[in-house]
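cron nightly-structures :: item 1 of 1
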Amino acid sequence: MAIFKNKYFSSISIIVVITFLSLLSGCMSAMLELQFGPVDVILNKNVEQSKYKRIAVVPYDVSGYDGMGRDKVSGPALADRYTFELMRAGFDVIERQRLESILKEQELSMTGLTDPKTSLKIGKILGVQGFVFGSVSGKPNAFSVMTKLIDTETGTTVWSIVITNNIEKNAIGKLRKTLDKYYARGGK
């Protein structure tokens, strides 16, 4: 089963790694939005980014994606792909099967994690500071993947990344340089 049969999807892992490595740089103090072509990154600078070390990734919602009979997308497979990238970036990621097991024990579903009380309860059981949610929408030649980290205690969006399939060749380099300059100035 292919996640996407599209030449642009392979670039997503590079962007995710670069972005997440940059996020590990520490504390910030308002919203920062970066946009380079199809890559939008929003960081909540009111949240200490370094707090989020242990997280759980929820299977992506793929109901908004129409593969037009040629392309199948699996929410769990996409979540596994992002889990791999998050682990490469240094996060301690709880296995999806462990999350599903805890939810089953508590007689809850993945959709219950959007409720702040449920999120806090499951977050405490798993010992995670945040849940990664994502969705895919569009069609094979015009899709977007949205990924966001939500704080388990407050329900606050910590960061959000939206990637579309129209990736410019130099978007990755521009994003990295801008984030490096931002952090070199002390987050100003």
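cron nightly-structures :: done
The chain has one domain: 10-184.
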